[in-house]
Amino acid sequence: MRIDLGEVENAVSSLGHKAVVLFPAEGLSAGNITAVVAFGRPDGTGNLEILPEPEPDSAVVTQLLALRRHISYLIPPYMHPTVWVPTDSLPMLASAKVSRLAVKNFVTRELQEDWLNSWRRMLNTIDLENHIIQPEEAMAIELADIVDKLIGTGDGHRRPEGGKPYHDIILSRAGIDSIKTIQLMRLLSERYNITPTVGKILGSEMSIRDLARYVETLQSHPDGREHVTTQAIDLIEEYRGLSTILQDHFTPKECRPSKLPDAISTVLTTGSAGYLGIEILHQLLKRKETSNIITLIRAPSMDKALNKLVSAAECMGWSLTPYLSKIEIWLGDLSEPNLGLSTAHWERLHGNCSSHEVIDAIIHVGAIVDWTKSYHQLKAVNVISTLTLLNASTHSLLRTGLRPRFIQISGGRKPASSFASSSWETEGLQLARALSAPGTLGYTQTKFLSDLLVCKWASLHGGTQDARARVVMPGFIVGGGPNAVANMDDVLWRLVSTNVGLGMYSSEVNNKWVYLASSAVVARKVLHCIFSAPSSACHSTVDERETMAIPVSDGLSETAFWSLISRSGYPLTGTPHDTWLAAVEAAVEAKGVKHPLYPVLHFVKRGVGLGGDLPAGDGDGCEDEEMKAEVERDVVANLAYMRRMGFLPAVATP
Ligand SMILES: NC(=O)c1ccc[n+]([C@@H]2O[C@H](COP(=O)([O-])OP(=O)(O)OC[C@H]3O[C@@H](n4cnc5c(N)ncnc54)[C@H](OP(=O)(O)O)[C@@H]3O)[C@@H](O)[C@H]2O)c1
Question: Which of 38, 520, 626, 632 is the least crowded, having the fewest Cβ atoms under 10 Å away?
Fold first, then answer.
């Protein structure tokens, strides 16, 4: 995981204590996130001569424990300091800033082992004692009991009469996954007559005690619902911080004219073993001009990485074998520093290689596609990996004078021809404000921020018009061609299966557009962006010279979509939304976890991902009969696949 020490320091200072956060390479706390915090003098200024002794009930300990608790709401656990150095005050410079150098010298050279160890021991003891839920914590005990039944025993978290006390476990780490979260929500609603918010539990670091406080808060509201604003992510702040890092990688040399490579012979892709990535890889492999396709794969060994690609291709009905000479696998992990690459690969990514090895284009497909995870859980893979690839491209440009093309696959929001080259940042910041609202999916937030960074990078590299950095925005991605393979995890097909079972669909869909294209169509669009000359017109009606984001607007009106499903052997009746939703809820209730909509029902109820919730199409492609015919053929082929897999019932006349 990538750790931003500035972010940690902001969190540690957020209660007003002067603090410095370091990651020392030497000294007693080497290799640990170390927080030096002044708890003594109100203004925090002074020197490091007075160090408090660890006395359990002292004011310093109380403040330190409060601070640790507070930051757990602000930053994810992997960013929490593991060494705490409480002090009375911190040394200051004449500029009234903390002298970081003096603090660093103190931490690396002057910290006394005995003193630090006694603080560690005392904090560990307090943690252990605090971890046990006490008998007087009635609500927490009740909830621990519920959670215990839900996850089963076996991890030391046992009923009190079994001899062991309950611990204040973190739900997500104790096996409460998305399905169990929904079960837990239902149990809580029934037992306490409250309406908990799923996002509060899913993708969070909520513990049993936190849950008890949450339930008690909801009980105190007349309608049992949440009215407090949850901690929101400020996407504007996030963007400003990350775009500064992009900018920092530029140097005055950057101003020299750069050019796009004449030929695209070496392409780096991420996410190639995924549903879309494997199709992009297939189309790349078939192109004569690309002689080398580097693909970053997350796997423990080269053999396993190759197997991953081979079986992904086989699943889609083609063989990798004829193309093996063109493929170069790089083992890596998008969530790790330097993308988990070897030094040699990292250097090559930065253009530190011979001219024939320079990477001409990057197609960034890899991402965690998960609606249930929070912004922080997705940030490393969905945002920071983009930043890292863009920075590497900047370095490559500085070394070679060649500007790699960069195509990013967007997601999580309606495709739109957004980010006009003249006003992308204003538009982007407006959207950032809207998407910062609590309740917005972390997936949507991270993918959006990543897109905005690509726009920033393009604008830094001589403007958005010719930089050939583009964000391709697909809607739903389905299987393509007569042998289409449907992604049955997709909410689209979960809804189709639900509606087929009910024989109805929500008729509040009249002017909606279902953005839907096969992976083959999306891949074609991506490759078009990579290989077309900068001035040539895009295949869509949107002029890609004018906008940074290229929407894949293919699809059908939602009415046409459900009518097609009806004509394919699954007769459906348009039904008022409330009646339809009640029927859906009853069906999910009856089948429980086995129902395809079970894990996403709460999103569907909120309108997320429901076809009817998608805003009307912007008209692009609506008149394109050829496109519609292709979409219809693909939908029918996906239905056939799902029938073969038993996901949909057989029909008499398909
Ligand atoms: N599916 C859709 O309907 C849809 C719609 C719009 C946009 N998109 C976008 O299209 C892209 C591809 O989506 P998809 O449906 O093809 O998703 P997918 O099948 O889940 O593929 C995601 C890929 O990203 C890789 N990945 C995830 N975490 C990684 C990590 N830490 N290190 C290295 N690789 C990692 C995965 O590798 P592993 O095999 O190692 O997990 C996988 O190959 C995503 O950017 C998504 O946001 C998808």
Answer: 626
